[in-house]
Design goal:
single chain, 479 residues, mainly alpha, Rossmann fold, Arc Repressor Mutant, subunit A, three-stranded antiparallel sheet, two-stranded parallel sheet, 19 helices, 11 strands, elongated
């Protein structure tokens, strides 16, 4: 095994990349980056019925969007390929036979019905089920007779009964009584390797030194260590991350909101914000500053300080963090990212300068980019719905304000923001001095007529963006 740290992420393409898998990928990526190691992507697609090219592409696209670029993988190659498990089927039988030859594995001819009967008997007697080793000492004649009946054997690993101890990178020392495991299948009767066998062979041949994964894999670890030892291979270091839970402390699922990386992106979460948020699920920066780039996080990352406890996925915190990233992004780049969320409107009615101004003056309250469809709608709709501001526009004082603007609009330079700003200032002053109307009420009347709302972007800039024709048309409609 290489002295250089080599880690991997090995998702199954049976669904879009889950945010939990993305967190595992991130921690592997950070660990490799911090130690000068290598980050490998392997696709575990042995379940051919559930795997698809679309899901595999989603894994590629999602990891790349998050900036988690791999050093080796199916699309970039490397010295240890192939990197799709389905292309490695010819490798596993060789190592299964090696274990048989060394006395660590044996052929099992038990049918599903026989195994179910054993399990039912164990349940009936209130015992934990372990395989009976019924086929351990079959003679060659007995095996031949079973084969003659058309029964194809699986291959079982013979578990040595002992206390197995290993030091987990995250959880510390863990102990297992291997007598509770029972002899487990490593090759199915159809010639397909089981997960625990294939993953060991792949990690061994790819020189993976450290395996960082979710704690749901802890029960697999003793089986995998036993296989490593039987093959005479160096056992990698293991680190098991706590689970990601929903705010109600149950398993994170779609009923709580988005769970796939691509779903978050579709809703308008910035990938920089998403990766920053995910990094904080089980890890804390040493300086207490939460908003950091991936490079800054990697420089500060310490795998042994990752929490062994479960983490709660707080959507409210993600929204806050995403909002912070939106506020800090340069307007031209933000505009490019926002335009797809305005696809239902004719954005061509404005030039680039005005589109960027729309983004600039409406981004403050945004927590996700998709909110722009509502927050900026009044810039693009032909007709403004005044139902929500009916009480405002029907006031006599509001009608006076609107009429005053219409009567004096010809003196306004609608192409000059500064002039519009001054004219609105004059409008507030006039109604305060002559009508005793609060400046806020004066501007409410104008805003309600032009946008159908009582709050929103700066009015001078809004008027400039809308232009003379739209402004006068909307004021007349409000009257």
């Amino acid at each position: 095994m290489s002295d250089k740290i080599r880690v991997r992420i090995a998702p199954s393409p049976s669904g879009n990349l889950h945010i939990g898998t993305a967190r595992t990928a991130l921690f592997n990526f950070l660990y490799a980056k911090k130690t000068g190691g290598e980050f490998v992507l392997r696709i575990e697609d042995t379940d051919l019925d559930r795997s698809s090219e679309a899901f595999k592409q989603n894994i590629f696209d999602s990891l790349k969007a998050l900036g988690l670029n791999w050093d080796e993988g199916p699309d970039v190659g490397g010295n240890y390929g192939p990197y799709c498990q389905s292309e490695r089927f010819d490798i596993y039988p060789k190592y299964a036979q090696m274990l048989i030859d060394k006395g660590y594995a044996y052929e099992c001819f038990c049918t599903n019905e026989e195994l179910e009967a054993e399990k039912e008997e164990a349940i009936k007697n209130h015992n934990a089920y372990v395989y009976s080793r019924k086929c351990l000492n079959l003679s060659e004649e007995e095996k031949a007779a079973l084969r003659a009946k058309g029964i194809k054997p699986s291959i079982r690993f013979k578990v040595e009964h002992k206390e197995l101890v290993f030091n987990d990178l995250v959880k510390g020392e863990l102990k297992f009584d291997t007598s509770l495991i029972g002899d487990f299948v490593i090759m199915k009767s159809n010639g397909t390797p089981t997960y625990n066998f294939a993953v060991v062979i792949d990690d061994m041949l790819m020189n993976i030194t450290d395996i960082i994964r979710g704690e749901d894999h802890i029960s697999n670890t003793p089986k995998q260590i036993l296989i490593y030892e039987a093959l005479g291979a160096k056992v990698p270091r293991f680190g098991h991350l706590g689970m990601i839970l929903a705010p109600d402390r149950t398993k994170l699922s779609k009923r709580h909101g988005a769970t796939a990386v691509s779903d978050f992106v579709k809703q308008g979460y910035l990938t920089d914000a998403l990766i920053n948020f995910v990094a904080l699920l089980g890890w804390s920066p040493s300086d207490g500053v939460e908003i950091k780039s991936v490079d800054e996080i990697a420089a500060d990352f310490r795998i042994h300080e990752v929490s062994s406890s479960n983490s709660v996925f707080e959507y409210d915190k993600l929204n806050w963090m995403n909002g912070q990233y939106i506020k800090k992004m340069e307007i031209p780049k933000l505009t490019d990212m926002i335009l797809p969320f305005l696809s239902k409107y004719d954005t061509a009615q404005y030039d680039r300068k005005k589109l960027e101004k729309i983004v600039e003056i409406t981004r403050e309250p945004l927590t996700v980019l998709s909110q722009i469809e509502h927050d900026a709608s009044y810039f693009f709709e032909d007709k403004i719905n005044l139902d929500e501001v009916k009480e405002v526009v029907e006031k006599d004082s509001s009608k006076e304000v609107i009429k005053y603007v219409l009567d004096n609009a010809q003196s306004w330079n609608f192409d000059d923001e500064e002039d519009i700003h001054n004219k609105l200032g004059d409008l507030r002053a006039y109604f305060k001095e002559n009508k005793g109307l609060k400046p806020k009420d004066t501007m409410w009347a104008v805003r309600a007529a032009l946008t159908g709302r009582t709050r929103g972007a700066d009015m001078a800039e809004t008027v400039w963006i809308l232009g003379k024709e739209r402004v006068l048309k909307r004021l007349e409609a409000a009257l």
